[in-house]
What does this fold into?
Amino acid sequence: MKFNNNEEAVSPVIGVILMVAITVILAAVIAVFVFGMASDVQTTKTVAATAKQSGTDIIVTYQGGPDASKVTFINATVYSSSGVEINNSSSTEYPEVGYTTTFIGDGSAAQERVLITADFDDGTTQVLLDKLL
It folds into this structure.
């Protein structure tokens, strides 16, 4: 009785699969750099603002941060619990750290939403605070 030892079936198949996988991964990495997809990532700026309630009034303070010099505009708006703007927005251009504005409350016990955004010198806008008081 004669047996043939044929051990060539598995190794060439695995080798071809690995070569195809490496080629696909390499092509994807090159495509990312060639088409500039990696350069569209935006960074988050680090600045802060606070809001606190004093009686029925709301006091908003710009705290600044490492990117405070890049802030060109701060906009603060107070909304009622139903989403209706209850006060005019308070905005300031090139705010200094410690800038404070006070919103006169409507006298109700309902929660009010404070939304503070900042515009930056690169043209982006970022939410600094979105809080219920």
Notes: Residues 33 and 57 are 52 Å apart (CA to CA).
